[in-house]
Amino acid sequence: MKKNTRLPEETYIKGILSGDRVVLSRAITLVESTLEEDQRLAETVMEKILPYSGRSVRVGITGVPGVGKSTFIESFGKKLLDKGHKVAVLAIDPSSQKSHGSILGDKTRMERLSSDKRAYIRPSPAGETLGGVSARTREAMLLCEAAGFDVMLIETVGVGQSEIAVKGMVDFFLLLMLSGAGDELQGIKKGIIEMCDAMVINKADGDNLESAKRAKREYANALHLFPTRENGWYPKVEVCSSTELTGLDEVWEMIQGYREKMTYNGFFAKNRSDQNENWLHEHIVYLLKSGFYNNPEIKRIIAESVPEIKAGTTSPVAIARTLVQFYVDKFI
Ligand code: GDP
Fold this sequence. Notes:
By secondary structure, this protein is an alpha/beta fold. The chain is built from 14 helices and 7 strands.
């Protein structure tokens, strides 16, 4: 972001609170900026809008590429708009670090949803570490909430770390699956199953319908083998077709059922306050880490030490301690 594109603090706050999508986009760009001045302004804006955030249901959506995530989000999102909701779609895509592209980045995706004024779609910030991407996404989510969006759909691709990041910021985590792809649950990492609140078998249409229903039974049985959760929720399995628009109402009913149950037993609020606490620690680590690694002197010393460390003539442990001590003494 260029320096001269920064708006006055009040303009961001008023614009966001009045649901101005242009200002919302500019506020997210401000949050994504790596310039220190932008970051400080972003922090003030975040502080001021915080009391207006939180009034949404936050849904994480994951699944392997090709499972139909963007088709599902478009159809599901459209359905929610028809029910009177305002939907924001955000993404966490660690692969965008390398490719500088990102999921949701392609404008042709989710065309129907993105052209609707009641929806807001924002691609994953590119060229960042996962820690950076998830920090920005979390803030973007709060900004969207303050702008009046009441359903957050946070998409990620099926690669471990990014799922953990999404799980850490949502109320409900949904795993999209296919029937007949690798049978049973073997192909999916156990950790992801333990994280998800629902499995939704997509593409349950045409020749696939029967096998999707069969898979639903198999998955439901397999899920019973997992230990009961602290919040008393048993992950559910649904089938849907994102192209024929079947099963989507059931998915929404399930999410609402979850929300009601968790609100009643206190876990909805507990989960969010635990997430806030974790966010503090994650952000401390993020600030320390990015400050450290972006420091020119640290960069220089690391570059000088690497050959010796690679050659095994110096201990990485000793160098690490010296570097951290040097950083603390000189810069903190
Ligand atoms: P993503 O990579 O997970 O975002 O998957 P996409 O949404 O791009 O979908 C991958 C392909 O699957 C596309 O060709 C979609 O048209 C197709 N697809 C998505 N959902 C469905 C569905 O419910 N039924 C059928 N038959 N095809 C689908």
